[in-house]
Amino acid sequence: MIRNLGFYRTAKLYKHSSIRKRVKQVTDKIEIFPGTTVRSISNDRYGFAYSNPAKSDMDTFKFTDYDCVGFDLDNTLLRYNVTNLVCIEYEILAKFLVKIRGYNGSLLKPLTDDDLDFMQKGLLLDLERGNVLRISPDGIIRRACHGTCLLNMDQIREIYPEQKSEITDTFCHNVMATWNGPLSEKVRSLLDYFDIVASLAFARIVDALDEEHGSSLDRYNIWPDVLAGLFYMFSREHFQSSNGIFGHIKRNPEKYLRKCSSNTISWLKEIKKKSATFLLTGSNADYVNFTASYALGEDWQSLFDIVICFARKPGFFITNRPFLDVVNNNETDTASQDLKRDEMYSQGNWNELLEFFARITGKTNQQCLYVGDNLIQDIYVPNAFVRCDTLVVIEEQMSEGMLHHALTHPDEKILNSKLWGSYFCLKDSTINVDSLWGHIIKKHAKLCIPDISLITQKSLEEPIPCFDKDGKLYRGYYPAIPLSISAM
Asked: Which of 11, 206, 302, 426 is the most buried (most CB within 10 A)?
């Protein structure tokens, strides 16, 4: 679940909770009745000409084009009740920081609607300055808070000349440069629903320290404690002892987990008839067996030719860690010498997995697809480093609303943010551009979907318009583009 893991001049700040001027997002949706077809819209760049298929194979996506199809589990096949998950995650993290690390008890305050609005997937933490950032693909800082206090543009430019910094430039040039090593101590990206609570905990601590000192600090050293809290919460040893987040999920799975539909399970069976299939997840084997059994049924493992747990992505794709045998849902110290069909393994590497695929498919140059939700671990790295095609599941596509679709998301209060704006783009009175994450989606994914169940409603052989390799077109959003993009 969790990856392996100086100056700020005093200025007048505006608390998030007091911000009243908001740009109203148009969210009116049109109901689509069964059998209704989504038609093309006037602007060609969105590529939604379903009645006019694209001219070449490069313009369309089909599952049957792939010899091997893999899936992440968490937030991909297995959906969470994100609101309940985030609330208990924050509670656990705050208690750790107050009781174990001695931080101000204000961290334990109940979450308000403003607190939920503050958290958003994809935020960057400037760890030394105590700032939370949103950036565009060119590294420009478009919106920022110091703690929970929104900065205006003059304040941003005072801290970051020309709205840029070395860490944001480096991150946008190579997101892996800040994954580990010295730069990981300066900037942190919050990529999924397991770590987004860190933004609020981090910001609340900054607020408390500033209040204690009467002004902002020259340098903050908060992150090591927040990271320790995340490691505590998601320590894989805690599943057996029912501590951390795992104890809550084990005791009340229906509160935190959502079951897959029977149609999705049947669809996975159909894919396995045509392609080699694999489950590749960062979660530990015992947790995988528990959650997959709940979401996919007790015979979930039969849906895949091979299962890899605790894969330690993105390293799985770019290092050569050995595969370790799993016995009774526990990782052993025994390195596997020969991967076998219908077995579960832990850790491992992409090259050996490809050799396994070659044996079971009889093909040496497989076309592989990986379906996941984390834009660095599951999308950018496999596509950029091992030339694996990817399909990304982004729930915000549904929570923000889609063009000509009436679908809504039950967790939209936590997924959407009035403070930070759309996950996919950055818009205000002066700009209207892709966000960094919107850019990565178009550049490194074939399709972006809000829920795996929507893609299961199409035939595996049916072509779907997809993003182009240059990352310029928006047609890969399926079943439709987010409303925020349609207004660009």
From this structure: 206
